[in-house]
Amino acid sequence: MCDDPRCTHAMPFTAPTRPSLSRRALLGAGAAAAFAGGVAGFSATGVAPAIAQQAAARPNAIGPDAALKRLVDGNARYVGNAMENRDFSAGRVARASAQYPIAGLVSCADSRVAPEYAFDQGPGELFVVRVAGNFVDDHGLASLEYGVAVLGLPLIMVLGHSGCGAVDATMKTIKDKTVLPGHLPLLIEAIRPAIETAEKTKAANPLDAAIAENVRYNVRRLVEAKPIVAEAVTKGTVKVVGAVYDIATGKVAMV
């Protein structure tokens, strides 16, 4: 479980002297300003009354516990082979104009892990950040901040899975002091803190312990991620939880 009481089950630009802006540049600048304004309004001054009224009317304007229940119930349907979401073309036109995800997920890139299936959620209902080892780096955090500040996510889940190859490889690399090629060392360094903590427990199954600890470690990182996510957690508008998906059974267990 996360030890933090707030979490439960846990560029400079130099303009030319005489600028000449194309239509594309103007549109791009407008979009950037709108995005920046939305984030700034959330983190600095809170949601303005007009924006708050609009947000309250969103389909994902539900509490964190309600969002978590939808995921838990969806996983039960998935495990029982009683999924409700089978026609993924339904609502396609409506989704073209906006998205209202009920949860953000930090999921492993493992091809056997499919969050929309595992939680029986349709397109547009999950905002998923995927990377081998389901850890939070600066890029993933920025995406989740966008999800919280702009899309109104009420819930973020860090989802590990059984037999995670990235965690297993990190354990072996640390033990054997192997030097990996390319950018693989970046994965190792991101997962290393959780491995080192798990090793201290002397667990009977070191891999399972490391997978669970990797989830807990990244839950803590999100809970403490200032200013956007941490402030939302403090206000109670967002909850961060951790879970592990069992590939063989399809069951998701909270950690």
Could you characterize the architecture of this molecule?
The protein is of the alpha/beta class and 255 residues long. The protein has one domain (61-83, 98-254): Beta-carbonic Anhydrase, Chain A (3-Layer(aba) Sandwich). It contains 10 helices and 5 strands; from the N terminus they run ααααβαβαβααααββ. The chain has a 5-stranded mixed sheet, sandwiched between helices. It is globular.
Set out the fold topology.
Elements: H1 23-45, H2 49-56, H3 64-79, H4 92-95, E1 103-107, H5 115-118, E2 126-130, H6 138-149, E3 155-161, H7 165-176, H8 184-199, H9 206-223, H10 228-235, E4 239-245, E5 252-254
Parallel strand pairs: 1-2, 1-3, 3-4
Antiparallel strand pairs: 4-5
CATH superfamily: Carbonic anhydrase
Which fold name fills CATH's third level, the topology? Beta-carbonic Anhydrase, Chain A
Assign a percent range to the helix content.
Answer: 40-55%
Number of helices: 10
Strand order of the largest sheet: 2-1-3-4-5
| Sheet having the most strands | 5 strands, mixed
Q: Under the CATH scheme, which class? A: Alpha Beta
**Helix and strand pattern:** HHHHEHEHEHHHHEE
Count the beta strands.
Answer: 5
Count of spatially separate domains: 1
Mean pLDDT metric: 85
Spans where pLDDT lies below 50 across 5 or more residues: 3-34, 37-53
Helix/strand-derived class? alpha/beta
The backbone outline, from C-alpha atoms, is globular
Kindly estimate the percentage of residues that lie in beta strands according to DSSP.
5-15%
CATH architecture: 3-Layer(aba) Sandwich
Whole-number radius of gyration?
Answer: 20 Å
N/C terminus separation: 6 Å
